[in-house]
User: Fold these one by one.
Assistant:
Number 1:
Amino acid sequence: MASEMAHGAEAGGLETAMTHGSPEEPHASSRTYIAIALVLGVLTALEVMVFYVEALAPVLVPILLVLSAAKFVLVVGFFMHLKYDTNILRGLFFGPLAIAVAIIVAMMALYGYFL
Amino acid sequence: MERTSTGVPNEKMLMWAFIGSECMLFGSLIATYLAYRGRSIVGPYEEELLNIPFITVTTFVLLMSSLMMVLALSAVQRGDTRGSKLFLFLTALLGVVFISGQVFEFSHFVHEGLGLGRNLFSGTFFLTTGFHGAHVTVGVIWLLTLWAMAMRGKLGPEKSLKVEVAGLYWHFVDVVWIVLFTIIYLMSGASGA
C-alpha cells in the first residue's frame, strides 16, 4: 500500500493538476501537497511543544494563534485551492469568516476577556 | 464543462457558500465555548480530563487525511483509477480513525463523570466537538460513496468536480479542527482563559 501511495504521489509530481470547471489555472503538484502536509505536521508538533514549555506560558496564546493561523492559511490556500481560485470564492469564504471572528471577539469582550 | 456567468461551476460555488455559512456556525459555537470557559462551578474540569498527547495523534491523522484527499483529487483529474481508489479509501479510513478517537475520548469523559449537562465545560465542549464529529461522519459517508463509484469505474476525470466539491468539504472540516485543537485543547492551560 505504501508503494502504491509513493507511486501515485510520484506520478502526480510529474504533472500539474488543473482546476475543473474554473478558469484553467494550475494547482500545486502532488510533491507540493506532500511538502505542505509535512509543514502542517511540524507546525502541529511546534504547537504541542510550546504548550509544554512553562517558560513560554505568558506568550502561549499569541504563539498558538500564529501557528494555528499558519496551518489554516496553508490548508485553505493550497489544499482547498483558494490561492488559485477566483475572487468570488475568496469573498464567499472570507466574508463570513470575518463575521465569525467578529462574533468571537465580541463575545470575548462581553465576557470580560480583555479587561 | 458547464457554462456559468461567473466562470465557476454552480456546485463549487454552492459548496463555498455553504462553507461560508459553516464558518459562522462554528464561529458561534467557539464564541460560546470561550464565553463559558473556566466558569464551571462543579468538576470534573477541563484541565483534569483533556489528554493532549492522544488528541495530538488524532489531529495528525485528520491532517494527513487532507493530504490523501488532495492526492485523490489529483489522481481522479489525471484518470489514475488505482490512485483514485487508494487515496479516497485512505481519506475515509483516516476519517474513521479520527471519529473512533473522538468516540473513545467522549466515552472516557462520561466514564469520569462528565455527562453532557454536568457543567458549563461539558455542555459547550460536547456541543462544539460533537458538531465537528458529525461533520466528519458525513464526510466519511460522502467519501465512501465516491470510493464505491471509483470501484465500479464510474469516477473518471469527467467526474472530478464531484471529488473537488467533496474535497472542499473535507478540508473545511480539517480547518475547523485546526482551530478547535488550538482553542479547546492547547489553550486550556493558558492564563486568563
Note: The longest helix of chain B spans residues 120-151.
Number 2:
Amino acid sequence: MKPEKKYLDAFPDERRGWPLFWQSLRKVYSFSFFLGKRSKRSRLFAFLSFFPVLLSVFLRVEQAVTADASFDGLYFFNNAILLFALQFLILILAVFYGCSIGTEDLEAGTWAYLVTRPIPRTALVIGKYASSVVVMALMVGTGIVTSFLILNFERLGQIFIYGLLLKDLAVIFLGLMAYTAFFTFLGASIRRSIFFGLIFSFGWENVIQYFPGSTQRLAIIHYIKSLIPLPSTGRFSFLTFRLEPTRPLLAVVDLLGITIFFLTLASLLFTFKEPRVED
Amino acid sequence: MSLAVVTEHLSRWYGNVLGLSDVSLEIGPGITGLLGPNGAGKSTLLKLITGQIRPSLGRVTINGQPVTGRPELFFNIGYCPEQDAFFEGMTGFQFLYWMLRLHHFLAERAGLEAEKALRLVDLYDDRNRPIKSYSRGMRQRLKIAQAIAHDPEIMVLDEPLNGLDPLGKRKIIRLIRDYGREGRLVIVSSHVLPEIEALTRKIILIHQGKVFAQGDIHEIRDLIDRHPHVVSIRTPASRVLAAALIQQPFVVKAYFGDDEESLLVETKNRDQFFRFLLEMAAVKGIKLEEITSPDDNLQAVFDYLVGKG
C-alpha cells in the first residue's frame, strides 16, 4: 500500500519534475549535511581550517614579544590569512569534498540506497554539493572570523571593519562554490580525481594566475583575487604579483557562471553513473 | 492498475563481458524467486529492474512505465541490495529515519515508521547502537528494514537471507511470505535452493546471463531430484551408519572423508535419505554432529542441468 499523502512532504502528480525535485533537494541537503558534519573528513579539515587562528595567535605573540608598534592587524589579515584561505585552504577542501560528491557512495556501496528513492539524480548531486559547500564554509568561516577578531582586537569598536570581514567571507564563499562545482564535475568524470584535482589546484591554478594578459583568466583564482584588496607593496605583495583584475561585478558573474556550468555538467554525468556490478 | 514488472529482450554487457542476455519476463503479484549460482546475472537483472543500471538492449517497465528517469516510481518500490554497505557512522534508527526522510516522509512520521520497521526485524532494542557495532545478521535485517519501512507494493530483495542465523532466517521468510500473501509483488534472489523453496513455488532459474527455466518449483525440483546429491555427515559412528546406508536403494554410494568421522553419501532421493537418516539416529542412538549438503549450492545443480555434472 502506498503511504498516505498526509504522511509525505512531496507527492508525485501529473506534472513530473519541479515539485519533486525541490523537495528532494531539501531532503538530500539535510541528509548530506547530517552526514558531513559528523564525518572523519570534516573533523580533519576543521582542524586544518583552524590554522589561520594559530597563525594569528602566533603573530599576536610575536608582536607582544617584540613590542612592535607598527603592527597592523588588518594588513596581516588581508595579505596573509585571507590569501592563505583563498590560495590553499579552500582549494584543498574543495578538492576533497568536491571530488567525492559523485564517487563516495559508489565506492562505499551506499549508492543503491540513494538511487532507489523517489529522488531525481540531479537533486542528489546538487543537494550533496550544497551541503558540502555549507560544511566547508562553516569550517573556513569560523577560522577566518576568529583570526580576524584576534588580529583586529584594538579595532573591534570600528564598524567599518565588519563590512570588510563580510566582504571577505562572501569572496571565500564564492570561491568555495566555484571550486567545489569544478571538482564535483572532475569527480564525476574521471578516475583518480583527487590526484588530478591536486595537480590542477597547486599546478595550473598557481602558475596560470601569474601569466600576463588574458591567460590568467583561465584560472578560477584570478576571479577570486579580483575581488579582494589590490596587491600591497609590503612583504606579501608577491602573492598578487601581476594580477590584472577583472572588474568586481564581472568577476562575481564569472564565478557564478563557472559554478552553474560545472554543476550542470556534473549533474548530467551523474545521471548516467552506474555502480560496479558484482554478481 | 495491477502490479507488474516486465522486461523485454533485456541485455546488458560490461565491455566484452555478457551480464545478461535477451531476458524477457513478466512478473506479477506474489513472490517470485530468482535462482542462480553466483555470477549468473541475478544482481544485474535486479539492478536493471530498479533502474540502477541501464540496459544495453531492451527495456524494463514497472506498472507499464519505463523505470529509467522516473524517480517517482520509487515511492512504491523497496530495494534490498546484496552488498553489505551502510553509512557506518549512523545508528540503526538514524539510518532508517533518513531513508524514510529521503522517501519524503514527514519527520515525525519517519521516526514512527522507522521504529515500526525496526520492530518487524527484531532490531528495536538495538536501534540506538551504531551500525558498525552490528553483527552480520543484524546488518542484513537492517537492510531488509530499509526496503520495507515505507510499505512498498513492489519489493526487490537481492539475497535477503544471506548471513542470517536460522532463527532470523525463519522470521524473515515469514515476513516475506506475508507480503506475498497480501498481494504485493516481491522478487527475491538467492543461490540457495532451499531458501527459495521456503518462500515460493514460482521461480525463475537464471544461468550465465540467460533465463534457463521458469515456472513452478516442483517442475524444477523434478529435474533437480534426478541429480544425485552429496550429503556430508559428521558422526562418531560413521562406519555403522555407512553399513546401514549402503544397503538402501536410494543411496548411490557412500565413502569416508579425510578423517574417520566424516562420511559422504551420494543419494538420488534426498527426502527418503533424510527420513532414513533421522530414523537411524533416533532408533540406534547415533549421534549426528554435523550434516552439510555441498550440493545445495546451485552451481552443482546447474552444472548437472546443463550437462556438465
Note: Chain B touches chain A through 47 residues (CB under 8 Å).
